[in-house]
Design goal:
The chain has 21 helices and 20 strands. With 568 residues, the chain is of the alpha/beta class. Keywords: ATP-binding, Nucleotide-binding.
Length: 568
């Protein structure tokens, strides 16, 4: 006897449809799962066996072969338990469920038959909708997350025994049904329609002899009694708004030039590095950066929420899609795999969890150099590819890198304080700064000095997050209009022909930039990044063309490049 159910698994951060094929044959009682399963899937045999028996069903004493198709794709996780259990019950004739071919089944079974939530449901449900499925049946713990995808019915179940509807006809009213031979028997599908029993997509048998006294097959006409209606709580925006009210740039006294640099970085999603002695407010300034960033668009919100779902870090889906841009701040002891992603079962790293948001590396030179060097490729390409023997996974990684560092190991080089002198030798300062390689530094658009503040009171105007946010939104609106026909959203993503088209320089500007590059010895990558930064500065001023003043301001933010040239 043969039966087939539908389930799904994750491949990177995308959902992949998996066919769960069940074959019952005469032979020694044993259950084999094939199709490149991992250990968690192979252990599903024992979970399913115990759950089936503890729910009052009979586990077939036959040779059971379960194939997960396509067979050449590595499958991982425990999301197949529900599909395997229902597939065995339907194929053995203990359960009649005409709508099974239209439903995606996801869920992990406990030994008592209850359902446990699994990670990565959001991309799986999205893939099911794209593949034409009308409904998905999954644990109640995943319902809110699955309901974020529109256009597909969500049904939830907390126990295997809750599948039949007690208000509908059960096996007691259909004892004469043996498969699809009764012409006047009717059953209801997912949509509530009434197809005839001869259209059942699977064979139904009732055993004879010693098993003749077993209960007849249980009929599951409809899943409407399990339908989930989403009820969203307070939007995440309200909690984020509360955080923005608490963490405001008006709390930072002085540092007007740093706030200007942060506004430029937020307006074009440019990478930024703050350099200064301890206690000057570098961390405080960067941690308030989310308060001036625009909210995620609908497509960006779905993209970011999928990543958090695949990583198993989507904590509360009842508030809907994530709307605030991610802010990730890993400790400097993080490994390269933790930052870029990886592991035995590859998971998204911090660079992917910061997608469309901010990756903050506090005390940048304290990170291992090997860890920092893995950032070079995602900073250029916006994606991370993790290769394994059996598969290659690609994760999105378009993020703004925000970092802070001291000017030397003691922290007081160039501070100008008579009470605290720098104790580092020139060689030690060079060694400290050499922890950040030239190619990585070349990818940071703004390198800004943060001196000790001189303002100790609130006299005069203090720039607030609301004012900076308004400037960023105005610049973003210009970029949205400019790039509406392109697959990019920010000036920092310009390259090649699009850079020459939308950030074209006048003859005087091109000559000025050429002279600056020759004097400072900057690379061609720095050349392009200066132009992109100038484009953002012009957008903040509402200017159509890039002027020499915009270029000059962009160049003066290449602080470490100018210092290196001076030292030489």
């Amino acid at each position: 006897m043969y039966g087939k159910m539908n389930s799904a698994c994750l491949y990177g951060i995308e959902g992949v449809m998996i066919g769960v094929e069940i074959d019952l044959a005469n032979g020694l009682p044993q259950t084999n799962i094939i199709g490149l399963p991992d250990s968690a899937i192979r252990e599903a045999v024992e979970r399913v066996r115990a759950a089936v028996k503890n729910c009052g069903y009979r586990y077939p004493q036959q040779r059971i072969t379960i194939n997960l198709a396509p067979a050449d794709l590595r499958k991982e996780g425990s999301a197949f338990d529900l599909a395997i259990a229902l597939g065995i019950l339907i194929t053995s004739g203990q359960l009649i469920m005409p709508s099974a071919k239209e439903v995606l089944f996801i869920g992990e079974l406990a030994l008592d038959g209850s359902l446990r939530p699994v990670s990565g449901v959001l991309p799986m449900v999205e893939a099911a909708r794209k593949n034409g499925f009308k409904a998905v049946l999954l644990p109640q713990g995943n319902a809110a997350e699955a309901a974020l995808i529109s256009g597909i019915n969500i049904y939830t179940i907390d126990h295997l025994c809750a599948l039949p509807n007690p208000k509908e006809p059960t096996s007691n009213s259909a004892k004469g049904v043996k498969g699809g031979d009764e012409q006047n028997q009717r059953d209801v599908g997912v949509s509530g329609e009434m197809p005839s029993l001869p259209s059942l997509p699977f064979p139904v048998t009732v055993t004879k002899g010693m098993d003749a006294n077993e209960r007849p097959p249980i009929l599951v006409f409809s899943l409407e009694h399990l339908k989930y209606t989403p009820v969203y709580g307070a939007s995440e925006d309200s909690s984020c708004a509360m955080n923005e009210m608490i963490d405001d740039y008006s709390d930072v006294l002085g540092q007007q030039h740093v706030k200007r640099a942060l506004t430029i970085a937020a307006a074009g999603m440019h990478n930024i590095l703050l350099i200064g002695p301890p206690g000057t407010g570098k961390t405080m300034l960067i941690k308030r950066l989310p308060s001036i960033l625009p909210k995620l668009s609908e497509s960006e919100a779905l993209e970011v929420t999928k990543i958090f779902s695949a990583a198993g870090t989507l904590k509360d889906a009842h508030n809907g899609l994530l709307r605030s841009r991610p802010f990730r701040s890993p400790h400097h002891t993080i490994s390269a795999a933790g930052l870029i992603g990886g592991g035995g079962i590859p998971k998204p790293g911090e660079v992917s969890l910061a997608h469309r948001g901010i990756l903050f590396l506090d005390e940048l030179p304290e990170f291992s150099r090997n860890v920092l060097e893995v950032l070079r490729q995602p900073l250029e390409d916006g994606v991370v590819t993790i290769s394994r023997a059996r598969a290659s996974f690609t994760y999105p990684a378009k993020f703004m890198l925000a970092a802070s560092m001291n000017p030397c190991s003691c922290g007081y080089f160039g501070s100008g304080l008579s009470q605290q002198h720098c104790t580092c030798s020139p060689a030690r300062i060079a060694q400290y700064r050499a922890k950040i390689s030239g190619p990585l530094l070349d990818r940071i658009d703004l390198q800004v000095d943060v001196p000790r503040p001189k303002e100790w009171d609130r006299q005069g105007h203090v720039l607030s997050s609301a004012e900076m946010h308004a400037e960023v939104l105005a610049a973003q609106a210009i970029q949205v209009k400019r790039f509406k026909r392109l697959p990019i959203s920010w000036n920092s993503e310009l390259s090649g022909a699009s850079l020459r088209r939308y950030a074209n320089l006048s003859r005087e500007g091109a000559q000025l930039l050429h002279d600056i590059l020759e004097n400072l010895g900057l690379s061609m990558r720095a050349h392009d990044r200066i132009i992109k930064l100038s484009r953002t500065i012009a957008d903040l001023e509402g200017a159509q063309d890039i002027t020499s003043a915009h270029l000059a301001e962009a160049v003066q933010y290449r602080n470490l490049d100018r210092q290196a040239m001076t030292e030489e």
